[in-house]
Design the sequence.
């Protein structure tokens, strides 16, 4: 099933070389089957230095971006962890309400026999000679094993055919879910019956929280993989900045809380029904929070800055773990033949539209970080075209020169990796809250299948990047022009 058409291979690589513009780049040929280091970061907004945010401390991701391609308009298909990852892994848009659930991989993949169609792109790489290792949260279950939040560690794999190895050092927390919601003393949200704050600062080393252990385990595995001499896919799934916003003190100390900017739009947009938003239930589940978040009005500026401070500290903590992986690639001699991908599984409202959380189909929840580094090829490009998480599957297959066994809903990003301004249709679809949203290069148009009015929302991102006003009634002709494109994303799941 490998792609042996060397003419096609030559065209792909030649196009990439042509756009680098240097002989040095042309000398750095990736092997036919490069390694893939895929770093999934939970709840990561595209709020990093390399995205133009100078108040965020993300030096390691920024370092990767200096030689990578930064996709400035990348959108996930579903703004919740498990469903977003299912869409990424399968390259498919949601077709049923089951595809919108955190249990999508559990219900639609786990326990199924192996078939000709691979269960995920990782499975397909494994079938084509790649040694596949997962560490941390790649699908929904944080160690790849099926069990409830308060149950003992399970024995059934969420992705039964994708992994050669699936690992997680849960440390003092004992289970993956305990670690995911863990506090520095070894307790967790479950053991404390939700009587916890949504943030914590502790003067501990990186391994005092789970992401430090994940990084440590990944470093050891990179050393092993370097000795195997075969192409590998290593997926590393970091927990932060997912709630609770817990991080070592040194990352909190990187910020002056008084200087942290507040949300540019901490109110419900004009002409929008509250049904398009939510009451921050996940966030309020941390029941010792200083204030409750509601749709009746914003939390205090003081508390909003504390929460944003906590989130930013978690981003910097995770960034430091990414830096360790990048350094280890160099140390092991793997950097020149390893494609590195950083992907955020969705965004997060930090008080935007009165919401603290994901679970909306507004810009803040659907837009996330996405960076691809191809050694010697990407050269610090910024790609402004609208792309989707479903595009990642076919892109990785092209990069690894592996044939696609079936069509996905995504399209390969290779043309944009070669030329950021290549011809491309700017359209991405998002699904949640009984609604479907289309994002184009300028507009977001959303249609809800519900009784509450209005059911159509239109935002002009050229004039209103923070989605402060629904202008659908003012510009019905724009809505009418966009609905045929929107209809292509209507997969019938709300019919």
Sequence:
């Amino acid at each position: 099933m490998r792609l042996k058409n060397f003419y096609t291979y030559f065209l792909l690589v030649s196009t990439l070389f042509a756009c680098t513009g240097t002989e040095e780049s042309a000398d750095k040929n990736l092997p036919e089957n490069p390694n893939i280091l895929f770093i999934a970061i939970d709840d990561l907004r595209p709020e990093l230095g390399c995205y133009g945010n100078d108040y965020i401390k993300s030096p390691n991701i920024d370092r990767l971006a200096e030689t990578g391609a930064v996709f400035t308009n990348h959108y996930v298909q579903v703004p919740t962890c498990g469903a977003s990852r299912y869409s990424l892994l399968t390259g498919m848009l949601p077709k049923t309400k089951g595809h919108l659930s955190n249990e999508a991989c559990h219900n639609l993949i786990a326990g199924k026999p192996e078939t000709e169609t691979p269960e995920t792109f990782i499975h397909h790489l494994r079938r084509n000679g790649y040694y596949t290792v997962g560490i941390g949260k790649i699908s929904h279950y944080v160690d790849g094993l099926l069990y409830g939040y308060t149950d003992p560690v399970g024995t059934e794999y969420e992705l039964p055919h994708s992994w050669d190895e699936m690992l997680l050092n849960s440390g003092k927390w004992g289970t993956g879910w305990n670690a995911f919601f863990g506090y520095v003393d070894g307790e967790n949200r479950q053991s404390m019956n939700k009587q916890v704050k949504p943030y914590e600062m502790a003067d501990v080393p990186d391994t005092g929280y789970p992401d430090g252990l994940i990084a440590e385990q990944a470093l050891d595995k990179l050393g092993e993989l370097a000795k195997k001499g075969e192409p590998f896919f290593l997926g590393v799934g970091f927990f932060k900045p997912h709630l609770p916003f817990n991080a070592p003190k040194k990352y909190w100390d990187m910020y002056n809380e008084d200087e942290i900017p507040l949300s540019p739009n901490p109110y419900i947009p004009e002409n929008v029904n509250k049904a398009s938003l939510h009451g921050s239930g996940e966030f309020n589940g941390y029941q010792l929070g200083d204030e409750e978040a509601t749709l009746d009005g914003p939390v205090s500026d003081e508390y909003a800055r504390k929460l944003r401070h906590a989130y930013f500290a978690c981003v910097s903590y995770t960034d430091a773990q990414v830096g360790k992986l990048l350094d280890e690639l160099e140390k092991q001699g793997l950097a020149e033949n390893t494609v590195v991908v950083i992907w955020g599984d969705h965004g997060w409202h930090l008080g935007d539209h009165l919401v603290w959380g994901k679970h909306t189909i507004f810009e803040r929840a659907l837009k996330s970080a996405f960076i691809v580094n191809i050694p010697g090829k990407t050269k610090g490009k910024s790609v402004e075209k609208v792309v989707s998480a479903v595009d990642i599957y076919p892109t990785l297959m092209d990069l690894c020169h592996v044939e696609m066994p079936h069509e996905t809903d995504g399209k390969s990003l290779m043309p944009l990796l070669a030329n950021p301004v290549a011809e491309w249709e700017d359209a991405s679809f998002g699904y949640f809250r009984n609604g479907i949203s289309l994002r184009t290069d300028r507009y977001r148009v959303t249609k809800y299948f519900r009784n509450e009015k209005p059911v159509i929302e239109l935002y002009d991102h050229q004039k209103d990047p923070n989605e402060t006003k629904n202008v659908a009634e003012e510009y019905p002709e724009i809505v009418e022009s966009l609905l045929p494109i929107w209809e292509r994303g209507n997969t019938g799941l709300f019919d």
